[in-house]
Amino acid sequence: MLQTRALTKEFRGFRAVSDVGLSVAEGTVHALVGPNGAGKTTLFNLLTGFLAPTSGQILFRGEDITGRQPEQIAHLGIARSFQITSLFDQMSAVDHVELALASPTGLGYRFWRSSTQMRQFRDRAMDLLGQVGLADRSGAAAGSLAYGQKRALELALALALDPQLLLLDEPTAGMGLEDVDRTIALVKQVAEGRTVVFVDHNMHVVGSLADTVTVLQSGQVLAEGSYDQVRNDERVITAYLGQAG
Ligand SMILES: Nc1ncnc2c1ncn2[C@@H]1O[C@H](COP(=O)(O)OP(=O)(O)OP(=O)(O)O)[C@@H](O)[C@H]1O
């Protein structure tokens, strides 16, 4: 479904992503892991068009999408949820989802849109909030939501695009145990019928969710395989021990 060929990103001569050949199979959950500074976020930004590669190619369902803008990539059915919150504090949860649902139609960008026009999205918005466990918080201002609930709302916004490929940047970052387990269950649920690529530092999350794990180090692919394969890989152990030391 998603493939990169010799994908490289340099920042003033420094190779943050170097010659990466990633292959994500349709219908799988694929984790990107690696020590700090390994290039995970940069790779994510390349895949979603937020950064342009220095060289190499990105293919989505065999089509070359290298150099496309983020909104063009989103239109292809690739959605991303952000690690850093991008919510409007004063706006309610359900209004956020309605706006996201309206965006593909162009309505979302018109702030003078009528409430009647937006009403058509209400049922679907409530449905999405229910999926992420926020049905009873639909009217709450985003700013008043607990951290885990904000992350759940961000996931609902990504799901509003009904993406074929969902990219999640550290979905459990900063969460307590309970929220982590709830998020694992949630990602499993939304992965039904979709392909998911995610970055996470939490190995419990990676082991619970990922069909395939790609380990990056210094911008390059160090190892790839099932969670059990990579966690027993000597090179991976050394890379992580190096970081701890
Ligand atoms: N805009 C930039 N300009 C210069 N260097 C950058 C830029 N973005 C990232 N880098 C460098 O590229 C390398 C990879 O960074 P990246 O954020 O992709 O790693 P990461 O694996 O996501 O790390 P972390 O787990 O800490 O989030 C780092 O050495 C970083 O300092």
UniProtKB/TrEMBL annotation:
GO MF annotation list: ATP binding; ATP hydrolysis activity
Keywords attached to this entry: ATP-binding, Nucleotide-binding, Transport
Keyword hit for Transport: yes
The UniProt record lists the keyword Transport: yes
Entry superkingdom: Bacteria
SMART domains according to UniProt: AAA
GO cellular component, as recorded: plasma membrane
Family matches, as Pfam families: ABC_tran (PF00005), BCA_ABC_TP_C (PF12399)
Record domain ABC transporter: where: 2-243
Protein name as annotated: ABC transporter ATP-binding protein
Organism: Pedococcus bigeumensis
Source species taxonomy: Bacteria, Bacillati, Actinomycetota, Actinomycetes, Micrococcales
